[in-house]
Amino acid sequence: MAQRWKEDRLEKIKGDFKEYQNFIFTDYRGLNVEQITSLRTGLREKEVEYHVVKNRLAKRAFDALGYSDADRFLTDPTAIAYFNVDISDVCKVLVDFTKETSLSMKGGLVEGGVITEEDIRNIAMLPSRQSLIGKTVLLLNSPINGLASVLGSVITKFLLTLKAVEASKN
To answer: At the topology level of CATH, where does 2-126 sit?
Structure first.
């Protein structure tokens, strides 16, 4: 009975992990229920799943999915944030939470590559993808706005000159 439960649980974890490409591993020791709930809520708003998973089951699930690098993070109590959204948003939430609580980050697997805690902190300092896209559009639009402004002022000066010529002939 217990063996069947473990097998079912392993299949559920594998199914959950299979849907995601990015994983950040954290050590949640010292957090109380209220803090973990607050963290989960903040991450859920960013479309991130955050769960405490038994290391042995997580290792087996990651190994079955071909993520052999996950073993290095699955020591001590571990909670895993898994997601398919912009990593900078997720890193910001986690880094901000580490400033207020005892949460610590172990590292992660992002699109098949390994990242360290330092990488996570550096990513958190970057602007979000949406912000970078907005800035790029603004920069691309800037020369067009400048051209429109210059052409508008040339036409305005031309019209003012015509008005002055008309006024001088009258």
So the answer is: Alpha-Beta Plaits (3.30.70)
